[in-house]
């Protein structure tokens, strides 16, 4: 899927560039029309693997692996985040089982919106329905040990709308991962900067529901009950925008500037925002 996305982005860039810059780039990289046509062809012919029940397979043959006895191991060892080390100590390997250290397939729902993912699947000739998302989340979250601090970030993100309580629990785990040394001894070796940045990103993008599509800044807030309000500043297309979200309202205050107005949307309500203006949305 990610390979297809790279090809799609490359093709879009070439289509978007002015003619002179397009020629300069293709000549500099020695890109021939035939190669560019191959990119388009490959981006429509990559093969995805699914289980019989429609689950996106982590890799071909994943559905043939053994189920792992999570309950027994959790009763015996407590935390099984580093399942790889536990199994190696028993002369076993996680490669035999349907288990993951961190999000793999679920990264798709972390990186792409449902619409974006649907477009990629349709380009490849595969059907994509919204029900695909919660179905895959439920399947893989039961088979993940969270052996990486980044795992809590990814799973918190994908659960933002379907299970806010679990999303918040995973978020706080990621937030406290180094303070509590949840991996048992890694904190003295250094902090997990990726997880720290991920927790900030969750607040800024996941809980605000920010997307930029079709030249529109789209927001669809979904605050957990533990967060009563959220305020932050955005930089978008030369504008500096103060965003404030409560349970019932979302306010965007645009600082004075001399650049073109931007388009802002909440659900189907799309508006124009100019420098020095403030707009307010009633949240559903």
UniProtKB/TrEMBL annotation:
UniProt domain Glycoside hydrolase family 65 central catalytic: residue ranges: 1-200
Domain Glycoside hydrolase family 65 C-terminal: 211-264
Any Gene Ontology biological process: carbohydrate metabolic process
Keywords of the record: Hydrolase
Gene Ontology molecular function terms on file: hydrolase activity, hydrolyzing O-glycosyl compounds
Keyword Oxidoreductase attached: no
Domain of life (superkingdom): Bacteria
Protein name: Glycoside hydrolase family 65 protein
Lineage: Bacteria, Pseudomonadati, Thermodesulfobacteriota, Desulfuromonadia, Desulfuromonadales
